[in-house]
Amino acid sequence: MLPALLRKFLLATNGGRPERDLFKLQGVPGNPFGRIHFFFGLNDPVESCNLDWNLEVFRDRLPPGLLPIATTEGADKVCLSVTGQVLYWDAHARPGTASVHLLAEDLGTFLSALQSDALSPIVLES
Questions:
Q1: What distance in Å separates the CA atoms of residue 75 and residue 19, rounded to the nearest whole number?
Q2: pLDDT tens-digit series, residues 14-30
Q3: DSSP 44-74
Q4: Alpha-carbon span 78 to 81, nearest angstrom
């Protein structure tokens, strides 16, 4: 069962590309910011955009207790832990270095801290 705040977020957005996509990243040398490419949703026609597909594909690569909820512009993932914390998983971490970094104590804090810049997507009103 998904945490309540994640369910609420998915009901409102079903994942997708956020306008505010930039987040502060601490602990990764030379990389002070991360950028969300898209949040995973449910029943997306593009299989790799689905929450369940990503959970299955990355199950053996992610540390135990992490649910991938978004992907960055690279292969890194934003994950929700079983304790509710939002974590960054560095898919390219070198052996002997940390691959998981705390982004926020909870999903609400993480979402409200997202920022935008000139490279962030703009949703046009129709």
A1: 20
A2: 999 899 999 999 877 77
A3: -SSGGGBHHHHHHHHTTTSPTTEEEEEEESS
A4: 10
